[in-house]
Design goal:
Blueprint lengths: L1 H26 L2 H21 L5 H24 L5 H24 L1
Helix pairs in contact: 1-2, 1-3, 3-4
């Protein structure tokens, strides 16, 4: 459970950091750059802690999958990016992958 909470926190911070960095890229306000960089430093610190609690591959897969889903959603909410059928198909495959990973982890432990 600590890994899932850590990964969710990482993804949340990652989205905030990416949004700030994108905004910095369009208007050059140093505050956005600062928040983006600090966010990634905090992500690194959290990642160092959670990879000691689970397999590196499992943490990486979970982070990547949840990050892709949240990036699709954040892009739509914050930047009015459009969804298409490929985005929906990718999201469904990710949800299935996370479910399979979780099931595999339950059977191993």
């Amino acid at each position: 459970m600590i890994v899932l909470i850590g990964v969710l926190l990482i993804v949340f911070l990652e989205n905030i950091s990416m949004i700030c960095l994108k905004k910095y890229g369009t208007n050059n306000e140093i505050g956005y750059l600062t928040v983006g960089i600090v966010g990634y430093i905090i992500i690194s610190l959290i990642l160092m802690k959670i990879i000691t609690h689970d397999r590196f591959a499992d943490v990486s897969i979970l982070w990547s999958a949840i990050s892709i889903l949240s990036a699709i959603i954040a892009g739509r909410i914050f930047f009015d990016e459009k969804f298409d059928y490929q985005d929906i198909a990718i999201a469904l495959v990710i949800i299935i992958s996370i479910t399979a990973l979780h099931h595999r982890r339950l059977t191993i432990k």
